[in-house]
Specification:
By secondary structure, this protein is of the alpha+beta class. It has one domain: GTP Cyclohydrolase I, domain 2, CATH 3.30.1130. It contains three helices and five strands, in the order αββαβαββ. A five-stranded mixed sheet has the order 3-1-2-4-5. The protein starts with a helix and ends with a strand. 17% of the residues are buried. The model has no long low-confidence stretch (mean pLDDT 91).
Length: 133
């Protein structure tokens, strides 16, 4: 029977991972965001995406929760950041999310985007993105 230990070293160097990414796609939250009179005080849907590149040492090497880079942190902290708070601009919220995650140990690259999906009937959304790529 083949075990992971007997397979170790069989991956050609050219196929070794070059990127280790944790991502959260389309976190759908009601956020009090916008500066138009119709938006102020009226939470609207905001979709948030985060891509976090992590150092190899921070990417789980074994099948244990203790070894994993905690994407629950990303979801929980973004939710906490947006609850009970108002933002005039998506840029402000994206910058705060970006700063919070960039400060975490092991982060080597980062992309944060936010978009409002319900603004215009003729497009999927309007938003902003910050990226280190």
């Amino acid at each position: 029977m083949t075990t992971p230990d007997t397979l170790y070293g069989l991956v050609p160097a050219a196929l070794a991972p070059k990127r280790r990414r944790i991502f959260l796609n389309d976190l759908d939250l009601p956020v009090d965001i916008g500066f138009h009179d119709s938006e102020v005080g009226n939470p609207q849907r905001l979709l948030i995406c985060v891509d976090v590149d992590v150092e190899e040492a921070w990417f789980a090497a074994d099948d244990s929760a203790a070894a994993a880079w905690n994407y629950d942190f990303v979801r929980t902290e973004i939710t906490r950041l947006t609850q009970g708070r108002r933002f005039n601009l998506q840029e402000t919220l994206a910058r705060e999310i970006y700063t919070m995650i960039a400060a975490r140990a092991g982060v080597t690259g980062l992309r944060v985007s936010t978009r409002k999906p319900d603004i215009y009937a003729d497009c999927a959304g309007v938003g902003v993105e910050l990226s280190s790529y």
